Amino acid sequence: MGDNDTIVNKIRDIRVAKHLTQEQMAKALDINRATYINIESGKRKLNIDELGIICGKLGVSLSDLTLPSEEANKESEEKLKQIYYYILKNHFENGVPKTKLAKLLYLVDFTNYYETDHSMSGAKYYKLDYGPVAEKFFVLTDKLFDKGKINIDILDYAQMISISSTNEEVDPSALSDNEKSIIDKICKYWKDKRTSEIVNFTHSQKPWKDRADGEYIPYESIKEEPKNHIYAPLA
Q1: Whether residue 171 is found in the same domain as residue 107
Q2: Where a domain ends, among 28, 49, 66?
Q3: Residue at 80 is within a domain
């Protein structure tokens, strides 16, 4: 585990950035505000269970708090890459429109957060005109294409992304069975749907609707959605 001072400083900075009060954090931990103040001042150390609760409240992964920022970013990008590969290899061998893939990654991460209080990749998502997109999505896509790990076919209506037959970086152990199950159910629902349908759906959700253009989308905002409107439209 990382240095306690570094961890509590990150907790305080993220809490303030997300406009959460010390009282709200204390309530999540089932402690009083004075005790929580002692945590942020470094007078009281956190245990691993409390760190997990705080991560859930802040919408970050444990590595975001315990690893140096550069290491946490690398870990997040690697996990996002493996989710990316899994979607292509197991559900879209013939390719998927770039915009649709971006939305699938968003639905996977935010559905996982809704069900487990943790995102799957730890990636940060932002509101763009055509829906929520992971901060690393475009850079990661360019990297994978430049390295020959994915193919990009430019069609009249979309850029189609598919996994390269020479890609040997797919790690079958990178995702848990539960994570694969979440990815599978989302991809199966959206597999034969048009890109415009998944874009319209993400536009209908509060995480996107309640943000300003270009604003970071906090993971906890998915908790405001009805249970039957997390990864697919209301029945």
Answers
A1: yes
A2: 66
A3: yes
Distance CA 4, CA 82 (A): 30
Residue at a domain's end among 66, 98, 115: 66
User: Does 172 have pLDDT greater than 50?
Assistant: yes
**Alpha-helical regions (H) of the chain:** 4-17, 22-29, 33-40, 48-58, 62-66, 69-91, 98-116, 137-146, 177-190, 195-204, 206-209
**Do 107 and 219 have their domain in common?**
yes
Domain, as residue range, for 43: 4-66
Instruction: Check if the beta carbon of residue 99 is closer than 8 Å to that of residue 195.
Output: yes
Inform me whether the pLDDT recorded for 209 exceeds 70: yes
pLDDT exceeds 60 at position 199: yes
- Residue of 10, 11, 33 lying closest to 22 (CA atoms): 33
pLDDT for residue 114 is more than 90: yes
User: Rounded to two decimals, what is the model's pTM?
Assistant: 0.73
- Residue 235 within a domain: no
The Cα–Cα gap between 115 and 106 comes to 14
Domain count, the chain: 2
User: Does residue 180 sit in the same domain as residue 142?
Assistant: yes
pLDDT-derived band at 1 (thresholds 50, 70, 90) equals very low
Same domain, yes or no, for 126 and 22? no
Q: Cβ–Cβ contacts within 10 Å for residue 83, how many? A: 24
Average pLDDT score over residue span 192-212 = 95
- Other beta carbons within 10 angstroms of residue 13's beta carbon come to 10
pLDDT digits (tens, 9 = 90+) for 133-145: 998 899 899 999 9
